[in-house]
Amino acid sequence: MRRVSKIAAAGVVSAALAMTATACGSSSSSDSSSGGNKGVGMAFDVGGRGDHSFNDSAARGMDKADKEFNLGHKEQTASNGETESDREQRLDLLAGAGYNPVVAVGFTYGDAVKKIAAKYPKTTFGIVDSVVDAPNADSMVFSTEQSSYLAGVAAALKSKTGKVGFIGGVHNTLIGTFQAGFDQGVKDTKPSDTVTDQYLYETDTKGFNDPTSAQGKAQGMLDNGVDVIYTAAGLSGDGSIQAVAGKPGAWAIGVDSDQYQDAALAKYKNSILTSAVKNVDVAVYDLIKSVHDGKPKAGTNAYDLKTGGVSLATSGGFTTDIQAQIDAAKAKIVSGEIKVKSTP
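^ Basic membrane protein A, sequence as received from the core. Prediction below:
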């Protein structure tokens, strides 16, 4: 039996949820459950399902659980330029309509989860990339600096010019972990290599949903001799990959999902050296299963190289010739011999 919330006015609130979809971002649903047992509420970050990155990873985890446990679900997506009240309203409507768990994808939902989780103590909330101190919240955090370090190792070993680049979507603490790990991996492997670090936006989350800006940044780097570019910017990364694909001999490094395997990026896949994978799908699936089993997860749950929570993809076989060095670096991180920085 699924452990889900029931409220007498579920039908009324569900109608309100549909009516406010425009104000709270796009919305879609697949309600295969009946009565008050609504299933999973998913609040995506900007870019949403189809971002070929961490939102898609979260969606895979939900889809797997949906299929396995015959759950319904409602998903909504954040829009550029949202306010805190927009995020709160989205979570409030999902929880109020009877969805359980309610999963918030992205650090921007941190404060909203803390507030709305207190309002619905019998509903379990999941938050990706942020820590929320609440008895009914599962904080899913990932050691992205570790997988990024391995991406840096690969970049240094594959670069022919000795110039590599990093593009971040938003200049904040979270994306800083990607930069820190990547920069360290490059420098530990080839100290003489030059790393160019750039960001699309300082604070605006549009940085995760602006492929055109990323394409421009990447092209500028390529024009300056950079031949390997790692982009941590959600959907914006598509633009960077496209730019790299137009430069013979250059490599792109994907993020969060194994972007070589993404059908939407198929025509660029031979330019995708590897991807620093963040297994949000595993964390989301684990949370949904725990609620379904009546033993909801809570607290801070960390996913790192040791547990398989983050990894470096091998799809395409482009890292086969340097895999031994990547594996050696991974072993040193897992053992603690290499301490990866989480700040640039």
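Residues 144-277+311-335 form a domain with the Rossmann fold fold (CATH 3.40.50.2300).
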